[in-house]
Amino acid sequence: MKNQLLSNLVAIPVIAEGTAETQKDTPIGSGPFKFVRFDASQNTVEMEAFADYFEGSPKVPKILVKTVTDASSLQAELQTGGVDIAPMPTNLPPDTLNILGQDANLKIEQFDGSNIQYIGLNTRSAPLDKVKVRQAIGYAVDRDKLIRELLSGQAKKANSILPESSWAYTPGVEYNYDPAKAKQLLAEAGYKNEPIKFKFSSGNAAFNSYVQAIQNNLKEVGLNVEIEPLDPGTLRDQLRNGQFQLNTGVWIGGNQDPIFLKDLFTTGRIPGPGVACCNRSRYSNPEVDTLIQEAIDAIDREVAKVKYQAAWAKISEELPLMPLWYPANMVVANKRISGIRVSPSGDWGFIRNIELSK
Description:
Helices cover 30% and strands 20% of the residues. It is of the alpha+beta class.
């Protein structure tokens, strides 16, 4: 019997029969807050505390959730009191968060995160089809400096796709900054200054700043890298179709369990007919396929751990995807709000326990 049940348990939404058409305007849920009203003109959702929630009623009787995608608008809303709390505002760059932290009415709170910022490398696109070119990229990026200077320390360097708290974590091959080694690997690979396009999602100021810094790192070791911002929809299509060489993004959730490695790195998950996600690097190694499947099938967790760690050791050596850092879970809030405690996954469950003083 295959032991895949516990590894694959996920939350499946269940709604009453015949209510699908009304979910947009009057959704049904089971969380600590109940839906009250959706105001399309203001792009807000009003919710009230659910007194019978199984973990206890929220301490705040009512919340108003507002979507603010523009970074400047969100900054203004926080400074004027239009927004009381902004959990994980990924559209605000670190320097903006530092500025907001100096506001007399605001505070910035930082918590360790488990989400992963990464560089994806298309293993079937020359010159990235050569392992040594990919390894050179790994050694060329000065992540410590990026975290210190561009991210203001609001992240932790990552050596795995899994968070360090995962039971199957191992760092594998560690790519510490070593430009001399990067240059040596490029020479051994016979790299001839072929152009490499580095694509990323436009409209994100934080992404834009560190992508340019990474481009400079790569150019310093002799890589001919051009950056290309794209709108998110176009980028997703190109990633799915393999129309890229380098890209960057962040995986939100799902990486706490090592079964995540199957989606990212096994041959059967390469996008194509009937497969939409998630091995966008188009990485294929039969040894890795076998190790991951044996880990999934193992009844003994210690056996599974050894298999998963062996798989990551091989994957990290061949580097189809380079972990950059675990972004910290940042929260900007009015000083009247207390009780903020964000879990590594960055989910919004902490809202149930916040309190608001007058």
